[in-house]
Specification:
The structure is a single chain. The chain is mostly helical and 491 residues long. It has one domain. The protein contains 19 helices and no strands. Helix 15 (366-391) runs antiparallel to helix 16 (393-419). It starts with a helix and ends with a helix.
């Protein structure tokens, strides 16, 4: 009998709740501080230099998938299904990442020099960023051990530590008057500390990294099984990064800064809060699917409804208060309000298709997810190449929305075929009606202080959801019981 079979069965809901609450709590605390830091960064660098910084992150991020090719996601999934896979695959993954890191660094820096007219400072910053690939050789597989053993609570804490270290170092460099290159340096300097923390945590939780042994005969199969994950990573990287790279050829670095404040700093920051749940479900449901495949379907229906419950009011409220949110940065970037007012509608779409991607991995349908994300990446690239030369940043905004509508639609039909009907569209329409009622109130009160408007809007939305009966009595009792138990545990 395998080790996985002998392991005591863990509660699916309890494990996901623990990892989600740790992740979301860490993200809420972190995003509050991070938002203040981002405001200071934009003010210190200005729209032009902040645009240069986002070009560096976009360019390096686009090619970073070469340094992984999905093998670490594959490793985490396999450890979740059978913890003994750590002994079999860990060091082979490390060695493969070493060779991939060399290739990735050459491609990233070489292509920036050969195929772009980026400034000397941007090229230097890209080269600095690629040094992180070599530190990730050991860090990423250790991350997979913790992730595969469902210790996302630990990873959430480490994520906070990493970002706080970056903000401290970056803040010191900006205070000293250094340019954006030093902000990139700050993002690399904290990685040795994170390696030490991961190693300590793995030892402390008796998840010891296995003794060194490699089996080159496994390398081809590891890469082959990692390819679907790698295609997904590449497609998402295209969706999130290629717009900035194409924009750099047609608009000013100031306009690029505006776009990324609205998209990266705000829209994707709000989405990140929900990724705690998405990250929590993958290893846990992978384990559960191996033991009881029928248990996955209820998680899909209930979680989709919860994401719409969270995403719709954010989209409506964000659209109506975009100008107030942007002004928190500085008046210089006020034109970004229009971009944000459109982009916030991307939030429910990304919440849905990112969740579906994780469900697909859990039920071993990563091939189907890879095909969907690949088609999204191709469409995103084609639309950006067509719309950006004609409409600039507005073209990038609508490309993002159209791409995510396309991806969400494909995932809907994939899981409708796999799980059947059950989303309850009548209830979802009631959620939309509640968000509309909230929107009317927010619009009437929009001249008041932003935080007052947000608080009143949230209260109106929750009341409308309750009065319209958007949740069944069983769902309401389950939600109330869930939060009551978690609050008792928190106390």
């Amino acid at each position: 009998m395998s080790e996985a079979t002998n392991t005591p069965r863990r509660s699916v809901g309890g494990t996901i709740a623990r990892n989600t609450l740790f992740g979301m709590g860490a993200q809420i605390a972190l995003r509050g501080v991070s938002f203040i830091f981002q405001v200071l960064v934009v003010r210190a660098l200005g729209g032009h230099e902040y645009g240069q910084y986002t070009i560096v992150i976009a360019w390096a991020g686009l090619f970073s998938v070469i340094g992984d090719l999905g093998i670490n996601q594959y490793l985490a999934r396999e450890i979740a299904r059978d913890p003994s896979k750590s002994d079999e695959l860990f060091w082979d993954t490390v060695v493969l990442r070493f060779f991939l890191a060399i290739l990735c660094a050459i491609v990233t820096v070489g292509s920036a020099i050969a195929f772009t007219d980026y400034s000397r400072e941007i090229i230097i910053a890209v080269a600095v960023y690629t040094s992180s690939y070599f530190l990730q050789i050991i860090l990423a597989p250790m991350d997979s051990i913790l992730r595969g053993n469902e210790r996302l609570d630990i990873l959430a804490i480490f994520g906070v530590i990493s970002q706080v270290l970056f903000m401290i170092l970056g803040g010191l460099f900006l205070y000293a008057g250094f340019d954006f290159v030093w902000l990139v340096i700050a993002s690399v300097l904290n990685l040795p500390i994170m390696i030490a923390l991961h190693f300590w945590s793995i030892r402390r939780n008796r998840l010891q990294p296995p003794r060194f042994k490699i089996n080159p005969a496994l390398w081809f199969s590891v890469i082959r099984y990692g390819i679907p994950f790698g295609i997904t990573q590449l497609s998402l990287s295209l969706a999130f990064r290629v717009d900035t790279i194409i924009l750099s050829s047609y608009v000013s670095e100031y306009d690029i800064g505006l776009y990324n404040v609205a998209y990266i700093n705000l829209t994707l920051t709000l989405i990140v809060l929900a990724t705690s749940f998405n990250q929590a479900i993958t290893p846990t449901l992978s384990r559960e699917y191996a033991q009881n495949p029928d248990a996955i379907m209820p998680w899909y229906f209930q979680a989709v409804k919860m994401m719409m419950f969270l995403g719709l009011p954010i989209a409506v409220g964000g659209m109506l208060t975009a100008d107030k949110i942007i002004v928190l940065y500085q008046s210089e970037i006020a034109p970004a309000a229009l971009l944000l007012a459109i982009l916030v509608w991307d939030i429910p779409l990304v919440l849905y298709h990112s969740y579906c991607g994780n469900i697909a991995i859990s039920i071993k349908r990563e091939g189907a997810a890879a095909r969907i994300y690949a088609s999204m990446g191709i469409l995103n690239l084609a639309l950006n190449l067509f719309l950006i030369p004609r409409f600039g940043v507005i073209g990038a905004v609508f490309t993002t929305l159209l791409t995510d509508i396309f991806g969400a639609s494909q995932f809907y039909f994939l899981f409708r075929h796999a799980f059947g009907t059950g989303l309850g569209f009548k209830r979802l329409i009631r959620l939309l009606m509640a968000a509309g009622i909230m929107g009317i109130v927010v619009f009437v009160l929009r001249d008041l202080n932003f935080f007052i408007v947000a608080a009143v809007g949230a209260g109106v939305y929750l009341a409308a959801v309750w009065l319209l009966g958007a949740f069944t009595s069983e769902e309401s009792e389950r939600l109330l019981g869930f939060f009551t138990r978690r609050l008792q545990l928190a106390r």
